[in-house]
Write a structure and sequence with these properties.
single chain, 327 residues, mainly alpha, Serine Threonine Protein Phosphatase 5, Tetratricopeptide repeat
Length: 327
């Protein structure tokens, strides 16, 4: 695995005290081990020193304790980086997790962030291997750990959401995609666009499955969940009205028509909605023996709003037929 960054350790002057002081000797040996990149030895000695010296009343010891607390997470971080570079990912996860924990314990926020970022990268590689093997459930489990370590890693988040969806956990995938879509478009524009694209992709896949099972109630419930999460979700509005149309609930199609059309941001999608509304009025007109001129006129009015997309010609033909029948 490519090493993503290196961490230079700026060591303070070793505590200059009597060599007879066993406690300080342990500290000095820990610092030396860190300088020599013997991270396991450094972390062990420095942690032993902190445990033994934390209650000391000696200002020199306390000063060294404070410094050791900075060095301990650094030692674990570098040990984790080394393991990651050697593709020893389980060991890397263990060491980087300890680095993050120690850094948070000792108030070293920047080191904690670096440890978590690298931890996320390791999980990303492990999850990628599972995903490439089409073990989507395992990939999701691993990616979830990486996402928890670094929620700002949008590549990780998108991988997690895709793994959830591919493993059949559609709603979990949508939750992650929505989190990404809600991020700042100025900073995360590409990721936001990709999240929206994939939400639409997997939602339409889910709709297709439910349609194949004639589960229109399931589609409506799914759309309602989407709208609860995002009241401006244009796709959710469209999916819902299409489900009512599939159920031949034309009154509901008409009721939701204008609201659904207004929610669409794409002209073709808006036209598709008006086509459904026009067809609903037309179906009611036909069911009534073509006697209710008001229904016919409303059908024509809606169909004339179909100006984009794949239903333009069908809408024109319906308008012609309705107009001819009225003469």
């Amino acid at each position: 695995m490519k090493r993503l960054f290196s961490l230079a350790v700026a060591l303070m002057t070793v505590c200059a005290v009597s060599a007879q002081n066993e406690l300080i000797t342990k500290y000095n040996d820990g610092v030396k081990a860190l300088q020599e990149k013997d991270y396991a030895k450094a972390s062990t000695l420095l942690e032993e020193f902190v445990d033994a010296g934390i209650d000391s009343e000696d200002p020199t010891v306390l000063n060294c304790v404070a410094t050791a607390k900075k060095y301990i997470p650094v030692a674990y971080l570098n040990a984790g980086l080394r393991s990651a570079s050697q593709k020893q990912y389980d060991a890397a996860v263990e060491k980087l997790s300890v680095a993050a924990d120690r850094a948070e314990l000792y108030g070293e926020s920047q080191t904690a962030l670096k440890a978590k970022a690298m931890l996320a990268k390791v999980y990303q590689v492990q999850g990628g291997e599972a995903y490439n093997n089409k073990d989507y459930a395992a990939a999701a489990e691993i990616f979830a750990k990486g996402y928890a370590a670094n929620p700002r890693n949008t590549e990780m988040a998108l991988n997690l959401a895709m793994s959830y969806c591919e493993s059949g956990e559609y709603q979990k995938g949508m939750d992650v995609y929505r989190n990404v879509a809600a991020m700042s478009p100025e900073r995360y524009g590409d990721a936001v666009a990709k999240a929206n694209e994939m939400m639409a992709h997997y939602t339409l896949n889910e709709v297709a499955k439910l349609q194949a099972a004639n589960d229109y109630d399931g589609i409506i419930a799914m759309a309602d969940t989407m709208l609860a999460a995002n009241p401006a979700d244009a796709l959710a509005y469209k999916v819902r009205i299409q489900a009512y149309n599939g159920m031949k609930n034309y009154d509901k199609v008409i009721e939701l028509g204008e609201e659904t059309a207004n929610a669409q941001v794409d002209a073709a999608d808006r036209s598709d909605v008006y086509f459904l509304v026009g067809a609903a009025y037309n179906a009611k007109y036909n069911a009534g023996g073509n006697k209710d001129a008001a229904l016919r006129d409303k059908a024509i009015a809606a169909l004339r709003k179909v100006t984009e997309g794949s239903n333009v010609e069908a809408a024109k033909k319906s308008v012609e037929d309705l107009t001819t029948a009225a003469k």
